[in-house]
Write a structure and sequence with these properties.
Blueprint (H helix, E strand, L loop, with lengths): L4 E6 L2 E6 L9 H6 L6 E3 L2 E3 L7 H16 L3 H6 L4 H13 L3 E8 L6 E12 L2 E15 L6 E3 L15 E6 L5 E4 L15 H11 L9 E6 L8 E7 L4 E4 L4 H12 L4 E6 L6 E7 L6 H4 L9 H10 L8 E4 L2 E4 L2 E4 L7 E4 H6 L3 H5 L2 H4 L4 H8 L23 H8 L9 H13 L26 H17 L3 H4 L6 E8 L8 E8 L2 E7 L9 H11 L1
Parallel strand pairs: 10-13
Antiparallel strand pairs: 1-2, 2-5, 3-4, 5-6, 6-7, 7-8, 9-11, 11-12, 14-15, 14-22, 16-19, 17-18, 20-21, 21-22
Helix pairs in contact: 6-17, 8-12, 8-15
Length: 543
């Protein structure tokens, strides 16, 4: 074996070490394999094998690949896989991009065709070295055209966090560390507030260089913007964290985290109506997709806040005006009914709102005489669909123009309406304050972004009536039980969204107390007041 390269048996497994002068041109092929190559030979020609790889083939192929990788021989390592192009690039980048100057690879016990192994590497950047140890595994398969045993190439062979779209890098991470704090200066961490994990990651990537911090030197997986660490693997020089002020309130966030834990598939957002500041955002599960900000679902009867505002503005109803609430109502051949088929008869519209009578709303559609009116009301007064700049990725709601029965379904928050709890919390906040204030997590002064502005506010008389109906819902309507423990000037609206393929409806709830509004959804949670209501109440009481 050449100087600086060792292959040894340690505790029954072989160890491949490439050291000394680093990656300088070692040819391990003859040294490890004894010149025999792979497969068997007959008359000087390689015999093509078939069937599952044998244990000897697995060990031999793994040994040769790991030795070539450890020695930095990217071309040789690549030819020992079933995807030479991608594998060669990854092994070469391990040396040149990740700056690995030394690698010792210790395979573990072979399990079938899989070989686990441990990598003890040294990363050297600008004269400074740092150890890097981790574990991964590879699988050996038979080549389709050659019959040779080959490493089944996956980027995760190089490192388990490496994906097809990722690249290993060592250098200055552009997004410096960020110390995110709530509105009172309390530090916000993923450990204390798990639901903020995806939020904090986005804030770091977007504002890491705008908060006065200094980026550190890291070995990291880069899969998005160049130089932005998607996943830090080794920290060489600690960056100086910048201080990022958010609108989150730690107390309200803590209450939101506790509340959603009680219900799988729950999401909640809390907003300050007078400013649009987001006070809390929480999801269960906490990691992964931020359903609260990015979800797209029918919100059920919580959208009746918008529909009621439309009917009030057009003078088609008044809070104290008697309207009909029958058991069923038909529109363009489509029949609509109330939950469990209830009917109220002729009652004030405020009563129909408080009891969430679908048919009372459906029977007014002919009088509106404009299929696009609901979408216009949502956009022009409540800011829906106006390209919100919250500070992170968010969806700002959609009510596409429809006709006939599909347009009628939109009036009660069904059909093609798409919302999330951020949108419904904002609609609730607008009803409380009277004017749309775009929700946001960080100040617009941080990056000069422009907030969305609605075309007009709620007329004063409409706002007063809408709040009176929401107050009645919270005190003696469908939201009364959930809101019983909530104090202050309060209002609510429940929603049960029927979703195709689900036996149980999604539970939606919207409410406010003084200058805090919140909305929640619990997937397959049933009636709005049963599951979503307690989540919202818990958050409002913490405000």
């Amino acid at each position: 074996m050449r100087s600086g390269v060792k292959v040894a048996i340690v505790g029954g497994v072989f160890v491949v070490v490439a050291s000394g002068v680093g990656y300088g041109g070692y040819n391990l092929w003859q040294g490890i394999n004894g010149g025999s190559g792979v497969g068997t030979r007959s008359g000087g020609a390689e015999e093509k094998r078939s069937g599952p790889v044998t244990g000897d083939e697995v060990e031999s192929a793994a040994k040769e690949f790991l030795a070539a990788w450890a020695a930095g021989e990217s071309d040789r390592a690549a030819q020992l896989t079933n995807n030479p192009v991608e594998a060669g690039h990854a092994v070469l980048n391990y040396r040149e991009g990740a700056k690995v100057s030394r690698a010792e690879i210790t395979p573990g016990k072979v399990v079938g065709a899989t070989v686990p192994f441990t990598v003890s590497a040294t990363v050297t950047y600008e004269g400074q070295s740092k150890p890097w140890t981790y574990s991964s595994e590879l699988t050996v398969v038979r080549g389709l055209t050659t019959g040779r045993p080959l490493v089944d190439w996956k980027p995760a062979v190089i490192h388990p966090k490496l994906t097809k779209d990722g690249t290993l890098r060592t250098g200055e991470a552009k997004a410096g560390a960020v110390k995110a704090v709530d509105r009172k200066g309390v530090e916000l961490t993923k450990e204390r507030f798990p639901s903020l994990g995806p939020v904090l990651d986005q804030l770091r990537e977007k504002y890491g260089t705008k908060t006065g911090g200094e980026p550190g030197i890291e070995t990291f997986v880069e899969s998005g913007t160049e130089g932005v660490a998607d996943s830090t693997l080794v920290t060489h020089v600690q960056g100086k964290p910048g201080r990022l002020q958010t609108t989150i309130d730690a107390n309200v966030q803590a209450a939101a985290e506790r509340a959603v834990k009680q219900h799988p598939g729950a999401s909640v957002v809390a907003i300050k109506p007078s400013t649009g500041e987001v006070r809390a955002v929480a999801n269960n599960p906490a990691a992964g997709f931020n359903t609260a900000f990015e979800g797209k679902q029918a919100p059920g009867s919580t959208l009746k806040i918008v529909t009621a505002a439309l009917l009030l503005e057009k003078g088609l109803v008044k809070a104290d005006q008697v309207t009909e609430c029958p058991k069923n109502a038909m529109y363009y051949g489509r029949t609509f009914h109330n939950l469990k088929g209830f009917e109220l008869g002729n009652v004030p519209f405020s009563r129909s709102f408080a009891k969430s009578c679908n048919t009372a709303f459906i029977k007014k559609i002919d009088d509106v005489n404009d299929d696009s009116a609901l979408g216009k009301e949502a956009r022009d007064v409540f800011g829906i669909g106006l390209d919100w700049k919250t500070g992170i990725t968010s969806f700002d709601g959609s009510i596409p123009e429809e006709t006939g029965g599909e347009a009628a379904a939109q009036y009660i928050g069904q059909g093609t309406v798409q919302m999330n709890v951020l949108n419904i919390a904002s609609i609730t906040a607008t009803a409380k304050y009277g004017t749309f204030k775009q929700p946001f997590l960080v100040s617009k002064e941080l990056d000069g972004r422009t907030f969305a502005e609605a075309a007009r506010s709620l007329p004063n008389s409409v706002g007063r009536q809408l709040r009176a109906m929401m107050r009645a819902t919270a005190t003696n309507g469908t939201g009364a039980k959930a809101m019983a423990s909530v104090g202050g000037d309060k209002g609510a609206k429940t929603g049960s969204a029927e979703v195709g393929g689900q036996e149980t409806s999604n539970s939606w709830f919207a409410g406010y107390s003084d200058d805090l509004a919140a909305a929640a959804v619990v997937q397959e949670g049933g009636h709005g007041g049963d599951s979503g209501g307690p989540v919202v109440a818990s958050v409002l009481k913490a405000g």
